[in-house]
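Mods, move this if it's the wrong board.
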Amino acid sequence: MTSKVVDGVERRVELLAPAGGPSALHAAVAAGADAVYLGLDAFNARRNAENFTLDTLAQACDYAHLRNVRVYVTLNTLVLPSEIDRAIEVARRAADAGADAFIVQDIGVASRLKEQVPEANLHISTQMNTHSIAGLEAAALLGARRVTLARELSMAEIEQLADVAAQLGMQVETFAHGALCVCYSGQCLMSSLIGGRSANRGLCAQACRLSYDLHAESNPDPLPAPGEHLLSPQDLCTIDVLPQLVRAGVSSLKIEGRMKSPEYVFAVVGVYRRVLDRVLAGEVSAKATDQERRTLSEAFSRGFTTAYLEGHRGNDIMSYGRPNNRGVFAGRVSRVGDGWVAIASEVRLVPGDVIEFWTNKGHFAHVLDQTARFEKNTVFVQPERAVGKGDRVFRVRSAEARFVDDPFSPRVAVVGKVQLRLGEPARVEFSPCEPRVAGKVVGRAEGSVVEVARTKALTEDEVREHVDRLGQTPFCLESLEIDLDDGVGMGFSQLHRLRTAALDALSDLLITANRADSRATHATHTAYPLQPACSADNEAPFVAVWATNPACARAAKRAGAQAVYVPALNYKRGEASCQGVRLSQAGQAGYPKRAIIALPVVNHDPVPGTREERLGFDAWRYVKPDKPVFADSLGDLVRAHDEGALPELGFHVPVTNRAALQAAATLGAHRVWLSPELTLGQLDDMARGATVPLGIVVVGAQELMITEHCPLMSQGPCNERCNECPRREVRHHLIDRKGFDFPVVSDALGRGHLYNGVSLDIVHTLPDLIDMGISAFMVDSTLMTPEETAKATSRAVRALDAALHGGAAFPKPRGATTGHLFRGVM
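Not the wrong board. Structure tokens:
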């Protein structure tokens, strides 16, 4: 790891690379990564990558540690009730195999890991949605050593959080390059609820990269937009802001791409290695060259952006035109013949390159195979489809950039010494050239006593030739000192054995030393002990309603709801919304007394430049000691508990196993609202014997995404004065190519919320849910009118009463969904 002194403080900056499989691992290390992150065949958020087994993990760790590269294993998925013990056993075996740290999303896994595998370093995944000081403090309570911050943070926020993390004994890690999710990480249920493939389980179907039309209420035609991929961001590229990230105090720069090729890894990591080294060396010309930028573009690009780092959240960060790789512009079609076309090339094209033609009827790829003909700056090809003169051509894969995998590379430079003195044991030793360990780590081998030659004496050249045969080893010889007496006789095979034994010894010593060094310098923080805030006390079951306006809240109370939850974003007069639409005029009546405030899922600190600071929003003014509050992030749970409130943990912090349930209680939760990705059987497993009261949403539209970018911006320029935005006063929805409808809501801070067009209704299962021990049942009226709210609430109250008094279960309404209650997630 390299470092730089900034304002009198040494900044150690790690370059962290993806390793989707062994070849990508080799590419990352060869390109200069300080550390790699990789997944096993379970519990990792890229289950469709090649990944590693526990057996191949040990080989990968040895390969990396020999070259002083750390290995972080991703256990960054939700873990279901039946899986928690297996997940911890996988972690234990991975630690034994050499893993330096674990990247974790599930709070249950995090808490059990620190208890049962204490030697393991805990890194909090970006999936845990850490974007505030409170989030860092929650991570500290879990015993984390490092936190991967949310992608939606500005440079100023990162600097503040890096400083706070250092005070807590932690590091911060940020993404530096690669794909951007449009949704806050860990908050996307779109793939899960519409396709059964959970992003929280490593099988995201990337529904955000598909095409959609944006519609406004009572307008049959799609609204104008720059393209049809309305949820597809450009790719993150921080190559030009690395100095600012270093100055901000980032400890690790993470490159996305475990699903990408070794060529991608080698190219991108190589560019960032070179530029970062120049930045850390303080060179004036630290910026990337034009060639380095082309290398990044050609590796993979949907167009590049620094996005939220520099305060951008509008259309300029989006890739509305296409959701896949653009590559680099190669030229245009200059001539069209009978079955062939000529391309006037602006870059060097070679056989094996993959190009893409952009025509007025779409785009398609073509491989420059043996039929292609190359003449100076013109290439003649026979495309599979019709193209026209002037059509653009992009190179999306370069044959010359192909990564040639060598499992022995990069080789570790060593210096050697051979001692062959008559009457003494033969000795061979090697030591690495790296200054950090040069002379401190020495691999030695000793043979039989050296004797006088019976026929031909051994020469120095022969010793050098046979000791320097390192081709099938991970080492290369920089220099060799030979101490050879005259007249020594020895077979070459003995020299070979001594060389091999000395190198094996050196390899073991380096692997052990680097692994021990990583754990010794990395694990410096321990979790703070807490006690559970409360215990389940057999409270009477009740119906609660989530209401975004006073009319719906009062309708719910009249219909029998015993609790009303009001989002802080809708509590201020003039910010109420009905059916997801901001009400242009405030109602005459206010919210009912004793309404419970719900903190936002996304609640940034009011750092200059954030939406909270710009629009003067402070959710914490509504939080009072000894009063309940709905906290929808782990950080807000901890802060609310510290401020003396009685926090309930919302369903946006997915609690999917008993260990997570216990961790939530220990962190201060007075109630836990369970994840919508659990089945009925899994809910039963969670609820029986729970030590904290439980709740579940039984009716309402299910939120699929929360986005920092507002989807309504695709209509055109936006002044971002969300408190007076006329677009927010009209119902909007996205429609996909199959005709499915997804309501879109923009909140008071301009953040987007995407909902499932089919409403959830599991009221008919109330007898089963009550029997398990679940006591709170939520009706979410976000997209309802007051009349619909009253009807849904009344139905839930009557169903609850029937369940408690032995009445018949209510039937499931037609057209509703039961979500994952009867179909598990993959």
